[in-house]
From TrEMBL:
SUPFAM superfamilies: ATPase domain of HSP90 chaperone/DNA topoisomerase II/histidine kinase (SSF55874). Residues 462-578 form the Histidine kinase/HSP90-like ATPase domain. GO terms for molecular function: kinase activity. Gene3D superfamilies: 6.10.340.10, Histidine kinase-like ATPase, C-terminal domain. It is a multi-pass membrane protein. This is Sensor histidine kinase. The keyword Cell membrane applies. The chain crosses the membrane at residues 12-36, 286-305.
């Protein structure tokens, strides 16, 4: 009851007040912590950006190192190199040049600036090789990297070259020969690929005129500094190693740490946080005007929407008032796809159905009155008819004209079926078929052997209920307008079956048929419900179709198909109701 005062105002006022309450109050409430939220969003955005850049950088390095290792695998499996190492016929220098040429072609050394050197060291003392990229293991024993590593194993290592104090990343691959007879491996030597760490690990933007957005520090698993793209930031490595919680924020920098899969090297990416401060300042300068603009827009759109919405509601109310006065005409629809327009469409649909129902009931009442009038006109004492037929049959029997006896018997059964009050509107398929067979018997007596009739009746349909008198008009139409007009003997087939929870009846003939225009016109005319005065060859079929729709529903009725000179087909669809079940009679 406490809201009664609010609902006493017009809906326009209610909408404006409600919209402002649910929009302005939350908007003003979030202003106090909007800066905090936006700053966190900026931090998160930059952090995600740093994470993506780090991931992409590490991925590129891993792919690059994997490619170099794959090149070493290709060289180690090169049959020309393997054959040259064990060839005792050629000079050591010729073999060395041959091996050096294969190594150069495999690595494309002329195109790879990151490669410092690639050497093959043979361990076969009896077949020495010497060349630009080939030598003996014993010759390598005097070099600084060999002495430092003590025993060179397959894998990777890094060191600072004494020649120019250059950091070098080396990959080692053993060269083995497999004996195909006993599957024994014999080591022939090893390959050593040296890479300039400065070129391998340089930041992605270092080749451009502008500075890179981040700096890179590479150190070994022994915490030895190997490479730095910004030597002035080298003290950050010690600070990083001395922190216990491995924080990402360090002296104004965001630090991202990764370990390379293909080597035992650690990589630090350093991002300067001055971008964060710039973006936070930009956010502060942007928020207040936006908040002011949003507030004004909320007020404007609340007023505009409330006015339009209340106008649509008023239009719907006006339609209700017109319908209340008895005006069932459908006026222009209310635009939109919301509940108001849906309510308007449903209301208009209801008015249309109500108007159609009134007209339909009026037409049905007229048809009932007309049928009653015809019944009164055609009423004849049934006993008089039966007695007359029995008299005719007796006279025919005396004269031994048994065809007339048979015709009188069939005609008497037809009279009983027509005038019987115990049948009701619905009868069984078996009863309707009996009536049709009596009718066909009499018609065949008239036209002789002008046509043959075939029955294709499903046994389980005998006790299915159907409307009475729906088959005779259709069969009569097929015989009189299709079969007897042709010079040859025709056929008429009557089929009854169940399909999709419906009773299907088909009357099909091979008579003269109809063209497509006449078929379309017939299908249209039999579905006209308000044409009570039309007469013609289609009136019987139209009446049957309308009876089916009135008694069973709009989804049931007759469908006509025909082809000129090839016959016609009449399909009747009825609800599947077995004897004893309740009908809508």
């Amino acid at each position: 009851m406490k809201w009664k005062g609010i609902y006493s105002h017009r809906i326009f006022t209610q909408l404006v007040v409600f919209t402002l309450l649910i929009s302005l109050i939350p908007t003003l409430s979030i202003t106090s912590f909007l800066f905090y939220k936006l700053e966190n969003m900026v931090k998160t955005e930059l952090s995600n950006s740093y994470r993506q850049m780090t991931s992409q950088y590490i991925k590129n390095i891993d792919e690059k190192l994997t490619q170099y290792q794959y090149s070493l695998d290709v060289i180690a499996d090169n049959t020309v190199i393997l054959e040259a190492l064990v060839d005792e016929t050629k000079s050591p220098y010729i073999k060395g040049e041959q091996i050096s040429s294969e190594v150069t072609k495999s690595l494309l050394l002329d195109r790879q600036k990151e490669i410092r050197n690639c050497m093959l060291y043979s361990d076969i003392d009896e077949y020495p090789v010497y060349g630009n990229r080939a030598s003996m293991v014993k010759e390598a024993g005097h070099e600084e990297w060999f002495l430092r590593e003590r025993a060179v194993k397959e894998g990777s290592f890094s060191y600072i070259s004494s020649a120019g104090n250059v950091p070098v990343l080396s990959f080692v691959k053993n060269i083995e020969n497999v004996n195909i007879h006993n599957y024994e491996k014999k080591q022939l030597g090893f390959l050593k690929l040296d890479l300039y760490m400065e070129l391998v690990f340089k930041p992605a933007d270092a080749d451009l005129e502008k500075d890179s957005s981040y700096d890179v520090i590479v150190y070994s698993d022994k915490n030895e500094l190997l490479y730095s793209s910004a030597p002035r930031k080298n003290p950050l490595l010690d600070a990083w190693l001395n922190t216990e919680d491995s924080t990402e924020l360090l002296d104004g920098f965001t630090v991202k740490h990764e370990t390379l899969k293909e080597s035992s090297l650690n990589v630090l990416l350093l991002f300067d946080n001055h971008q964060l401060a710039v973006k936070q300042q930009t956010v502060r300068q942007m928020v207040l005007p936006i908040l002011l603009g949003v507030t004004l827009l909320i007020i404007f759109w609340a007023w505009l929407y409330s006015r339009n919405f209340s106008a649509r509601i008023g239009c719907l109310v006006q339609k209700f008032h017109k319908a209340e006065t008895g005006d069932l005409n459908i006026y222009g629809p209310i635009a939109g796809n919301d509940e108001v327009s849906e309510l308007d469409r449903q209301f208009s649909h209801m008015l249309g159905k109500l108007n159609a129902l009134i007209q339909k009931n009026y037409i049905r009442e007229l048809e009932n009155k007309e049928a009653q009038l015809k019944n009164l006109q055609l009423q004849i004492n049934p006993h008089f008819l039966y007695n007359t037929l029995e008299t005719i049959s007796s006279m025919a029997a005396v004269k031994q004209v048994f065809d007339i006896c048979d015709i009188c018997q069939k005609l008497g059964e037809i009279f009983r079926y027509n005038l019987g009050k115990n049948y009701g509107e619905f009868v069984t398929v078996a009863q309707e078929l009996g009536h049709v067979q009596n009718y066909i018997f009499i018609i065949k007596k008239r036209y002789g052997n002008r046509f043959e009739v075939f029955y294709n009746i499903s046994p389980d349909t005998d006790q299915v209920m159907t409307l009475r008198f729906i088959l005779q008009p259709i069969i009569e139409n097929a015989i009189l307008h299709g079969l007897v007009k042709q010079t040859t003997t025709g056929t008429l087939e009557l089929s009854v079956w169940e399909e999709d929870n419906c009773l299907m009846i088909r009357v099909e003939d091979d008579g003269i048929g109809m063209d497509i225009q006449k078929v379309e016109e017939l299908n249209r005319s039999i579905n006209v419900a308000d044409n009570l005065t039309k007469t013609g060859r289609n009136i019987g079929i139209r009446n049957v179709n309308q009876r089916i729709k009135l008694a069973c529903g709009e989804r049931y009725g007759i469908t006509v198909k025909s082809t000129l000179h090839y016959g016609s087909q009449f399909d009747i669809r009825l609800p599947l109701i077995r004897k004893g079940e309740k009908t809508d009679e």
